Structures are given as structure tokens and as C-alpha cells.
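Thread: "does anyone have the structure for this chain?"

Original post by V.I.:
We have the sequence but no experimental structure in hand. Need at least a predicted one for the grant figures.
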Amino acid sequence: MRIDLPRLVLASLLAMVTAGCATTAPRPPEAPPSAPLKTELNEQEQQAFVLDYAQLLISSGHHGEARKLLEQLRGSDPGNPQVLELLARVYEQEGKSGMALVAWQQVQRTRPDNRADAAELARVALMNERYDIADAVFRRWLAEAAPGSRERVAALNNLGYSELLQGKFERAIYHLQEALELDPLNRRVRSNLALAYELIGHTEQAQAQLRLLGAAN
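Reply from O.Q.:
Generated one for you, C-alpha cells below.
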């Protein structure tokens, strides 16, 4: 894959290399010649450089420029998970949550065992009300989690929260109660359980949970 580095990027590099060269101060003795300065990057180095530059653009708020650069990279290397991940983040920043979801799905296909990718996929799926996608992630975590583990608590809590959003209150309460039995001090689970009780009109039970959290008057 041959990547054409943007002129602005090359200009920035030259500016950094030549910065401070013009000076009237005495120059120190020159060191013995070292290895020659590398002026050309191989394809892998070029791609790494462009990805770093895209991340810089994203962090500085230049999402449109980053997107164009990343889409160019994706055209040359469509299965690169790093490119797809950055594209997903750019799309989300631009308010294109549907495109972000598609990008995270592609990331997940390339890195199927990456839990962080799955978490991002589920989060963006919930944003898009694609509960089937999110629930599939949470149920897979539940199936893989060891009994009584933190991973099982997290899976139960996430599944319960998704069911809350879908209006499946009884199922949500069932999974949240199971999570709370495993981890009674988990504030996030208890807060979600209080919300579930409130939504079905069980105000006293909701208040009891809030009192335990120290959130009720």
C-alpha cells in the first residue's frame, strides 16, 4: 500500500527538523558522523505516521480532515482495525452514530476477541437503539464469565440496563437483582435497580435502594 502523505504533514515535519537552525550563537563542535538521516519511510512506517497524524487531527477537533484521511487509508487497506476504530470515533464525534456503529461492527469482525472493542460496539448500539446487537454482546460476556466474577456482575448489569431502555422492566429487575446478589456494594447496579422500580411504580422499593445509596433525603 502506497500512502501519499499530505503536503501539510511533510511541511510540518520539515519545520520541526529545521526549527532553531538560524542562530548567531557559537556552534558547538560537531560530533562524529552518525548514521545518515532517514528520508524515506517504508509502507508500514508511512501508515503508522498517517495514523498518528489522524489521531492528532481528532484530538485537536479537526474531524473532517481526519475523516478524509482515514477514509483514504481505508480505501487502500479496508480491513485495518486501527483505521476502522479511528473512523468510528470520528463518525461519532460528527454525530453520525449510525456510521460509527457500522465501523465498530467491522472492527469487531477483525478483532473478535477484543473485549474493549465489544464494549464500544455495545455502547454505540445502545445509542442507535440496536438492542439486539448490544444484548448479543452482553449475553456472550455472561456465557463466558466465571460464576461470581466481576465480569458476570458487569454483564448482568449491562443486560439489565439494556432491558430497562427497551421497557422490559421485569427482566431488567431480574438481572439487576442477580448482579446485586453477587456484588451488594455495587452502586451502579443498585442505582439501575432503583430506576427500574421507579419506572414500574414501585416507589417504596426504589426509595429503599436510594437510601442504601445515601441518595435519598
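V.I.: this helps a lot. The two ends are 63 Å apart (CA to CA).
O.Q.: and The CA atoms of residues 125 and 133 lie 6 Å apart.
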